[in-house]
TrEMBL record:
The protein's name: Alpha-galactosidase A
Highest taxon of source: Eukaryota
Lineage per the UniProt record: Eukaryota, Fungi, Dikarya, Ascomycota, Pezizomycotina
Family matches, as SUPFAM superfamilies: Protein kinase-like (PK-like) (SSF56112)
Annotated source species: Cudoniella acicularis
Cross-referenced InterPro entries: Kinase-like_dom_sf
Pfam families from the UniProt entry: Kdo
Amino acid sequence: MQPTTIEILNQEVDPDGDTPSYYRMLVNKKDFKYITIDPGIYEVDDLCFPASLLEKLPPLPSGNWNCGRISQSVENPTPFFAEIARKALPSISPLWHPKSYDYLSLKIGKRLRSNVYLASSLQFEKPIIAKFARFDWEIRYYVSETGAYSWIDGHNIGPEFLGYITEDGRVIGFLIEYIEGRHPTVSDLPACRAIVRRLHELNIVHRDLNKHNFLISKRGVVLIDFETAVQSKNCDGMKKELEGLERQLLDESVNGGIHRDEKII
Ligand SMILES: Nc1ncnc2c1ncn2[C@@H]1O[C@H](COP(=O)(O)OP(=O)(O)O)[C@@H](O)[C@H]1O
Ligand SMILES: [Mg+2]
Protein backbone atom coordinates (compact mmCIF):
# COMPACT_ATOMS: atom_id res chain seq x y z
CA MET A 1 0.00 0.00 0.00
CA GLN A 2 1.20 3.51 -0.84
CA PRO A 3 1.84 5.78 2.17
CA THR A 4 -0.87 8.39 2.72
CA THR A 5 0.08 11.90 1.65
CA ILE A 6 -1.60 14.74 3.49
CA GLU A 7 -1.38 18.35 2.44
CA ILE A 8 -2.82 21.20 4.48
CA LEU A 9 -4.35 23.51 1.89
CA ASN A 10 -5.94 26.08 4.19
CA GLN A 11 -6.19 26.67 7.87
CA GLU A 12 -7.93 28.98 10.25
CA VAL A 13 -6.28 29.02 13.64
CA ASP A 14 -7.25 31.03 16.70
CA PRO A 15 -3.95 32.64 17.80
CA ASP A 16 -5.18 32.56 21.43
CA GLY A 17 -5.92 28.86 21.22
CA ASP A 18 -9.38 29.29 22.78
CA THR A 19 -11.59 28.15 19.92
CA PRO A 20 -11.38 25.22 17.50
CA SER A 21 -8.98 25.31 14.56
CA TYR A 22 -10.17 24.48 11.07
CA TYR A 23 -8.25 22.80 8.27
CA ARG A 24 -8.91 22.00 4.65
CA MET A 25 -6.68 19.09 3.71
CA LEU A 26 -5.98 17.10 0.58
CA VAL A 27 -5.31 13.42 1.08
CA ASN A 28 -3.48 11.37 -1.55
CA LYS A 29 -3.81 14.34 -3.94
CA LYS A 30 -7.50 13.62 -4.46
CA ASP A 31 -9.67 13.54 -1.32
CA PHE A 32 -10.65 16.78 0.42
CA LYS A 33 -11.09 16.50 4.17
CA TYR A 34 -12.29 19.26 6.47
CA ILE A 35 -10.85 18.71 9.93
CA THR A 36 -11.72 20.59 13.09
CA ILE A 37 -9.31 20.37 16.02
CA ASP A 38 -10.75 21.06 19.45
CA PRO A 39 -8.96 23.80 21.42
CA GLY A 40 -6.28 22.97 23.96
CA ILE A 41 -4.94 19.83 22.25
CA TYR A 42 -1.93 21.21 20.40
CA GLU A 43 0.26 24.28 20.92
CA VAL A 44 -0.71 27.25 18.74
CA ASP A 45 2.76 27.10 17.13
CA ASP A 46 2.04 23.53 15.99
CA LEU A 47 -1.46 24.44 14.83
CA CYS A 48 -0.03 27.24 12.68
CA PHE A 49 2.83 25.22 11.24
CA PRO A 50 1.57 22.48 8.90
CA ALA A 51 4.75 20.36 8.93
CA SER A 52 4.79 20.10 12.68
CA LEU A 53 1.02 19.61 12.99
CA LEU A 54 1.02 16.78 10.44
CA GLU A 55 3.55 14.89 12.56
CA LYS A 56 1.25 15.07 15.56
CA LEU A 57 -2.14 14.24 14.02
CA PRO A 58 -3.74 10.90 14.86
CA PRO A 59 -3.84 8.50 11.87
CA LEU A 60 -6.64 9.39 9.46
CA PRO A 61 -9.50 6.90 9.64
CA SER A 62 -10.18 5.15 6.35
CA GLY A 63 -13.45 5.59 4.49
CA ASN A 64 -15.35 8.07 2.43
CA TRP A 65 -15.74 10.79 5.08
CA ASN A 66 -15.08 14.46 4.34
CA CYS A 67 -15.57 16.12 7.73
CA GLY A 68 -13.89 15.07 10.95
CA ARG A 69 -13.16 16.37 14.43
CA ILE A 70 -10.10 15.66 16.52
CA SER A 71 -10.64 15.66 20.23
CA GLN A 72 -9.03 14.61 23.49
CA SER A 73 -10.46 13.61 26.85
CA VAL A 74 -9.33 12.73 30.34
CA GLU A 75 -9.88 9.06 29.50
CA ASN A 76 -8.24 9.47 26.09
CA PRO A 77 -5.38 11.99 26.42
CA THR A 78 -3.96 10.95 23.05
CA PRO A 79 -5.74 13.04 20.37
CA PHE A 80 -8.26 10.97 18.44
CA PHE A 81 -10.97 11.35 15.83
CA ALA A 82 -14.17 11.83 17.84
CA GLU A 83 -16.32 12.25 14.72
CA ILE A 84 -16.12 11.49 11.05
CA ALA A 85 -18.97 11.92 8.60
CA ARG A 86 -19.75 12.37 4.94
CA LYS A 87 -21.49 15.74 4.84
CA ALA A 88 -23.16 17.50 1.92
CA LEU A 89 -21.25 20.79 1.93
CA PRO A 90 -22.81 23.90 0.39
CA SER A 91 -22.25 24.94 -3.21
CA ILE A 92 -22.43 28.37 -4.81
CA SER A 93 -25.69 28.93 -6.63
CA PRO A 94 -27.31 30.22 -8.75
CA LEU A 95 -24.78 29.86 -11.55
CA TRP A 96 -24.72 31.96 -14.69
CA HIS A 97 -21.42 31.19 -16.43
CA PRO A 98 -21.07 28.03 -18.56
CA LYS A 99 -17.54 27.01 -17.53
CA SER A 100 -16.22 25.19 -14.46
CA TYR A 101 -12.71 24.07 -13.55
CA ASP A 102 -11.85 21.39 -11.03
CA TYR A 103 -9.69 22.73 -8.19
CA LEU A 104 -7.33 19.79 -8.75
CA SER A 105 -6.71 20.93 -12.33
CA LEU A 106 -5.36 24.26 -11.06
CA LYS A 107 -1.86 25.04 -9.94
CA ILE A 108 -2.45 27.29 -6.95
CA GLY A 109 0.38 29.79 -6.53
CA LYS A 110 1.07 32.78 -4.34
CA ARG A 111 -1.57 33.73 -1.79
CA LEU A 112 -2.56 37.39 -2.22
CA ARG A 113 -5.22 37.35 0.53
CA SER A 114 -6.67 34.57 2.64
CA ASN A 115 -9.07 33.54 -0.13
CA VAL A 116 -7.33 34.97 -3.20
CA TYR A 117 -4.52 33.20 -5.03
CA LEU A 118 -2.50 33.60 -8.17
CA ALA A 119 -3.06 30.43 -10.15
CA SER A 120 -2.33 28.81 -13.46
CA SER A 121 -3.68 25.94 -15.47
CA LEU A 122 -2.87 24.27 -18.76
CA GLN A 123 -6.29 25.45 -19.87
CA PHE A 124 -5.22 29.09 -19.64
CA GLU A 125 -2.28 30.70 -21.37
CA LYS A 126 -1.98 33.50 -18.85
CA PRO A 127 -1.89 33.61 -15.05
CA ILE A 128 -5.30 33.70 -13.43
CA ILE A 129 -6.75 34.63 -10.07
CA ALA A 130 -8.58 32.01 -8.01
CA LYS A 131 -10.94 33.27 -5.33
CA PHE A 132 -12.76 30.62 -3.34
CA ALA A 133 -14.37 29.61 -0.08
CA ARG A 134 -11.84 27.69 1.97
CA PHE A 135 -14.57 26.67 4.41
CA ASP A 136 -18.32 26.15 4.04
CA TRP A 137 -19.27 29.30 5.99
CA GLU A 138 -17.48 31.42 3.37
CA ILE A 139 -19.61 30.15 0.46
CA ARG A 140 -22.15 32.95 0.91
CA TYR A 141 -19.57 35.66 0.13
CA TYR A 142 -18.92 34.12 -3.24
CA VAL A 143 -22.60 33.57 -3.97
CA SER A 144 -22.82 37.36 -3.90
CA GLU A 145 -19.59 37.98 -5.77
CA THR A 146 -20.19 35.46 -8.58
CA GLY A 147 -23.66 36.98 -9.04
CA ALA A 148 -22.22 40.49 -9.24
CA TYR A 149 -19.84 39.37 -12.01
CA SER A 150 -22.89 38.52 -14.11
CA TRP A 151 -24.19 42.10 -13.74
CA ILE A 152 -20.93 43.64 -15.00
CA ASP A 153 -20.15 40.97 -17.61
CA GLY A 154 -19.14 42.60 -20.91
CA HIS A 155 -19.01 46.13 -19.48
CA ASN A 156 -15.23 46.35 -19.11
CA ILE A 157 -15.44 47.28 -15.45
CA GLY A 158 -13.92 44.24 -13.74
CA PRO A 159 -11.57 41.41 -14.76
CA GLU A 160 -13.03 38.87 -17.14
CA PHE A 161 -14.92 36.13 -15.28
CA LEU A 162 -13.47 32.84 -16.54
CA GLY A 163 -15.61 30.26 -14.77
CA TYR A 164 -16.24 28.49 -11.49
CA ILE A 165 -13.91 26.45 -9.31
CA THR A 166 -15.34 23.11 -8.26
CA GLU A 167 -14.32 20.69 -5.54
CA ASP A 168 -15.93 17.26 -5.45
CA GLY A 169 -18.49 18.59 -7.91
CA ARG A 170 -19.63 21.52 -5.77
CA VAL A 171 -18.87 25.12 -6.71
CA ILE A 172 -16.57 26.78 -4.17
CA GLY A 173 -15.32 29.86 -6.01
CA PHE A 174 -14.35 31.37 -9.33
CA LEU A 175 -11.53 32.26 -11.66
CA ILE A 176 -10.94 35.71 -13.07
CA GLU A 177 -8.27 37.07 -15.35
CA TYR A 178 -5.12 38.34 -13.61
CA ILE A 179 -4.72 42.08 -14.06
CA GLU A 180 -1.15 43.25 -14.01
CA GLY A 181 -1.15 46.63 -12.37
CA ARG A 182 -0.83 48.71 -9.25
CA HIS A 183 -3.25 50.14 -6.73
CA PRO A 184 -4.16 53.80 -7.26
CA THR A 185 -2.91 56.93 -5.56
CA VAL A 186 -4.90 60.12 -5.31
CA SER A 187 -3.57 61.20 -8.72
CA ASP A 188 -5.71 58.40 -10.20
CA LEU A 189 -8.87 59.85 -8.65
CA PRO A 190 -10.48 61.03 -11.93
CA ALA A 191 -10.07 57.63 -13.59
CA CYS A 192 -11.30 55.80 -10.48
CA ARG A 193 -14.31 58.11 -10.28
CA ALA A 194 -15.10 57.42 -13.91
CA ILE A 195 -15.19 53.66 -13.47
CA VAL A 196 -17.32 53.94 -10.34
CA ARG A 197 -19.75 56.15 -12.29
CA ARG A 198 -19.95 53.47 -14.97
CA LEU A 199 -20.75 50.90 -12.27
CA HIS A 200 -23.46 53.18 -10.90
CA GLU A 201 -24.94 53.59 -14.39
CA LEU A 202 -25.60 49.83 -14.24
CA ASN A 203 -27.44 50.43 -10.93
CA ILE A 204 -24.76 48.72 -8.88
CA VAL A 205 -23.25 50.04 -5.67
CA HIS A 206 -19.89 48.47 -4.81
CA ARG A 207 -19.87 49.22 -1.05
CA ASP A 208 -16.18 48.40 -0.50
CA LEU A 209 -14.28 50.97 -2.49
CA ASN A 210 -10.90 50.91 -0.79
CA LYS A 211 -7.85 51.49 -2.96
CA HIS A 212 -6.91 47.80 -2.91
CA ASN A 213 -10.04 47.13 -4.91
CA PHE A 214 -8.85 49.17 -7.89
CA LEU A 215 -6.10 48.07 -10.23
CA ILE A 216 -4.41 50.55 -12.55
CA SER A 217 -3.29 48.56 -15.56
CA LYS A 218 -2.28 49.12 -19.16
CA ARG A 219 -5.93 48.85 -20.18
CA GLY A 220 -6.96 51.50 -17.62
CA VAL A 221 -8.68 51.17 -14.26
CA VAL A 222 -10.15 47.80 -13.31
CA LEU A 223 -12.47 47.37 -10.36
CA ILE A 224 -12.37 44.14 -8.30
CA ASP A 225 -13.84 42.57 -5.16
CA PHE A 226 -17.61 42.59 -5.63
CA GLU A 227 -18.45 40.61 -2.48
CA THR A 228 -20.55 43.41 -1.02
CA ALA A 229 -21.88 44.88 -4.29
CA VAL A 230 -25.65 45.24 -4.57
CA GLN A 231 -28.05 46.19 -7.30
CA SER A 232 -29.61 49.45 -6.21
CA LYS A 233 -31.03 52.66 -7.63
CA ASN A 234 -30.25 54.52 -4.42
CA CYS A 235 -28.68 57.77 -5.64
CA ASP A 236 -27.64 58.77 -2.11
CA GLY A 237 -25.65 55.56 -1.73
CA MET A 238 -23.96 56.19 -5.06
CA LYS A 239 -23.21 59.83 -4.22
CA LYS A 240 -21.68 58.84 -0.88
CA GLU A 241 -19.57 56.19 -2.56
CA LEU A 242 -18.20 58.75 -5.05
CA GLU A 243 -17.64 61.39 -2.40
CA GLY A 244 -15.72 58.98 -0.16
CA LEU A 245 -13.37 57.94 -2.92
CA GLU A 246 -10.72 60.62 -2.43
CA ARG A 247 -10.38 59.78 1.27
CA GLN A 248 -10.05 56.09 0.34
CA LEU A 249 -7.26 56.78 -2.13
CA LEU A 250 -5.42 58.89 0.45
CA ASP A 251 -5.79 56.22 3.14
CA GLU A 252 -2.39 54.73 4.01
CA SER A 253 -3.72 51.90 6.18
CA VAL A 254 -3.59 48.34 4.87
CA ASN A 255 -7.33 47.76 5.27
CA GLY A 256 -8.41 45.64 2.36
CA GLY A 257 -4.80 45.06 1.37
CA ILE A 258 -2.43 42.13 1.59
CA HIS A 259 -2.52 40.37 4.97
CA ARG A 260 0.63 41.12 6.91
CA ASP A 261 0.02 38.48 9.56
CA GLU A 262 1.31 35.37 7.84
CA LYS A 263 0.50 33.20 10.87
CA ILE A 264 -3.24 33.33 10.38
CA ILE A 265 -3.83 31.76 7.02
N1 LIG B 1 -7.90 39.97 -10.98
C1 LIG B 1 -6.88 40.37 -10.22
N2 LIG B 1 -5.70 40.72 -10.78
C2 LIG B 1 -4.65 41.10 -10.01
N3 LIG B 1 -4.68 41.17 -8.66
C3 LIG B 1 -5.84 40.84 -8.05
C4 LIG B 1 -6.99 40.41 -8.79
N4 LIG B 1 -7.98 40.13 -7.91
C5 LIG B 1 -7.47 40.37 -6.69
N5 LIG B 1 -6.18 40.80 -6.76
C6 LIG B 1 -5.29 41.16 -5.64
O1 LIG B 1 -5.70 40.46 -4.47
C7 LIG B 1 -6.17 41.37 -3.48
C8 LIG B 1 -7.37 40.76 -2.77
O2 LIG B 1 -8.41 40.50 -3.71
P1 LIG B 1 -9.90 40.92 -3.36
O3 LIG B 1 -10.79 40.37 -4.42
O4 LIG B 1 -9.95 42.40 -3.12
O5 LIG B 1 -10.14 40.10 -2.02
P2 LIG B 1 -10.64 40.51 -0.58
O6 LIG B 1 -12.11 40.26 -0.63
O7 LIG B 1 -9.92 39.58 0.33
O8 LIG B 1 -10.28 41.97 -0.35
C9 LIG B 1 -6.48 42.67 -4.21
O9 LIG B 1 -6.39 43.81 -3.38
C10 LIG B 1 -5.43 42.66 -5.31
O10 LIG B 1 -4.19 43.13 -4.80
MG1 LIG C 1 -10.44 43.62 -1.57
